[in-house]
DNA sequence: AGGGCTTTTGCATCCGTATGCAATCACAGC
DNA sequence: GCTGTGATTGCATACGGATGCAAAAGCCCT
């Protein structure tokens, strides 16, 4: 603390000005190569690193990105969080993690984020009101919705996977396998993921002139909700759950409570491809989200926006991939 | 950005000095009640909040706590992360999330944490070298190991659950139930959790003058490792896994690959009580870590240290609780 | 050698807030 | 009404670095 070396200390020690120390750390600054080398060497020796807080103050850019997470109990997100943090670090940002207190709107986090001069926000789970978004963006800060899409017209960029397309794949595979009585289990109704997956699933039926499959509302994206939903599925021979965690709960219900065999009696499909989907006890056939690509895209968009990219907001969609496992083996 | 209201703006508008605005936000400062009310009201109207970055600069305290996480793929940690973030927020801190790139020492994160003037660090999974710890603490910053204990003599505080005691409970329950051929499955060997759980498990045997149970090294704390380990368990009639995720992999192996019934043929116990342990498909009997209490203790220690508490480092242990489920029903 | 240029460097100042210190004010006691 | 005392307030400066601007130093050419 008192022992922390400052740019001034280093400058004095080297007999140069503090500005030069500052510039030596800015690759874009014009500094004689010899001088830069001398400074960086001395800095390394003294264990000096520019104070990020002070830099943030003058630059009006903190290089901190707020990560607003909810639903951390959905096993899809920990992996996202881990990779996102690493990717942000690699891009030169730090990640400030905010958890939305259950039931709250993400808008509640904005004041705290502004207070810490966060450059950008990545929102998963929770979304922003368009008023909140407009306010935030108006300040020259960036925001990206991850695995989510804004409902109304919005100035927010979003990155998600092609939920509808993935769900259509699920429906087509089930239909081609000759499954007759299909069911869709919806998750949290106010999420774009659940809505889009439902829409995509239905679209395959419409395209073939079939009547829409039965729909069960699980209420939210939890194991327990999936469990309950599956018990209402009656004699369905194919169930597409809005995400994996629902599907796992559903499979357990089907097998242990309803006494039905998966996949012989009933095929089960999920969405996300969380680690547990691959466990032999479940072997859940599912649609894999291209997480790595989604994260890369997110960061690219953030950086572009921070550099002032004036494009209108985009809703980027990356394709989901069907991962066949034991809970349903597609024909062919 | 340009539109951000500063304390000066507000002060000018109110015809007072900037200092008064600053003080109005400091509950300990002496400000006439009427003045404070007037300022806070105007602040609210103007949507003003003190710039945390600037405050951090003058205060030499950022009110940011670094959270160094690893093993985010272990479902025990997401819950910890979520609660920890909420608790830190409630205590007036922000959480900066750092992921240790796989295989790296947490020391690698310290420079970045210093750079952002983080007040304190909470380390889960990864640990600090004692040199790194000494350096960090010497700077007036705090650090706490969570769910981990330092191996050698160390100046680091730690909060964990009583792993040895919990493991002893597991052993005693198995022995009292008359299980004869017991096995301990170790996790990552260099973690205090695995070591202590093993030690505690063995101690129950020693106390009864029984020879030590068999030991299988899973290698790390993953589902797959647990799966592999269980296949080596032969005719064991009771297996205590160093944590839940190992136990789940083990149960699947026992049931689906080894064709053994749980709990009739073999009792299975885990440690942590992750959400999946409660799923009906597993119904894993396990030792619950008192996560909420551990987090509260962690924050309490952090705060005390930041206020200069000179106590020697403590290793706090909170008791684990046996949660009986279907994978092993203790006698009585 | 001198002029016109391009790099390098240093000087000052600013970012937005906190805080020690001195000035001011309010109010009680006499 | 005047002085003493404590509560309020304003002033000035510091925190650690970034950066516009001008001064200084090279450099190339005629």
Automatic annotation (TrEMBL), chains A, B:
GO MF entry, a single one: transcription cis-regulatory region binding
Positions of the HTH lacI-type domain: 5-59
Protein keywords: DNA-binding, Repressor, Transcription, Transcription regulation
Record keyword Cell membrane present: no
Pfam family name, one: Peripla_BP_3
Lineage top rank: taxon: Bacteria
PANTHER family assigned to the protein according to its UniProt record, in alphabetical order: LACI-RELATED TRANSCRIPTIONAL REPRESSOR (PTHR30146), RIBOSE OPERON REPRESSOR (PTHR30146:SF95)
The protein's name in its UniProt record: HTH lacI-type domain-containing protein
């Amino acid at each position: 603390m008192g022992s922390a070396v400052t740019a001034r200390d280093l400058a004095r020690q080297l007999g140069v000005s503090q500005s030069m120390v500052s510039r030596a750390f800015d690759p874009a600054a014009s500094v004689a190569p010899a001088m830069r080398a001398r400074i960086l060497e001395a800095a390394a020796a003294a264990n000096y690193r520019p104070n990020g807080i002070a830099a943030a103050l003058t630059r009006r850019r903190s290089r901190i990105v707020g990560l607003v997470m909810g639903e951390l109990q959905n096993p899809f997100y920990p992996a996202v969080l881990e990779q996102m943090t690493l990717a942000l670090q690699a891009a030169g940002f730090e990640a400030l993690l905010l958890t939305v207190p259950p039931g709250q709107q993400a808008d509640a986090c904005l004041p705290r984020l502004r207070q810490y001069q966060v450059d950008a926000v990545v929102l998963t789970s929770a979304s922003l009101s368009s008023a909140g978004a407009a306010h935030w963006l108006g300040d020259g800060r960036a925001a990206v919705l991850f695995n989510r899409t804004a409902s109304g017209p919005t100035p927010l960029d979003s990155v998600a996977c092609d939920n509808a397309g993935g769900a259509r794949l699920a429906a087509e595979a089930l239909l081609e396998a000759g499954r007759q009585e299909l069911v869709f289990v919806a998750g949290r109704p106010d999420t774009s993921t659940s809505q889009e997956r439902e829409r995509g699933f239905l679209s395959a039926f419409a395209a073939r002139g079939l009547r829409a499959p039965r729909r069960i509302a699980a209420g939210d994206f939890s194991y327990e909700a999936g469990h309950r939903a599956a018990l209402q599925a009656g004699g369905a021979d194919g169930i597409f759950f809005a995400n994996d965690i629902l599907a796992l709960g559903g499979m357990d219900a089907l097998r242990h409570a309803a006494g039905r065999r998966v996949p012989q009696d009933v095929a089960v499909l999920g969405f996300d491809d969380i680690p547990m989907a691959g466990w032999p006890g479940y072997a859940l056939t599912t649609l894999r989200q291209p997480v790595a690509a989604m994260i890369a895209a997110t960061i690219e968009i953030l950086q572009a926006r921070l550099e002032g990219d004036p494009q209108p907001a985009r809703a980027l969609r990356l394709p989901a991939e069907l991962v066949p496992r034991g809970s349903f083996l597609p024909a062919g």
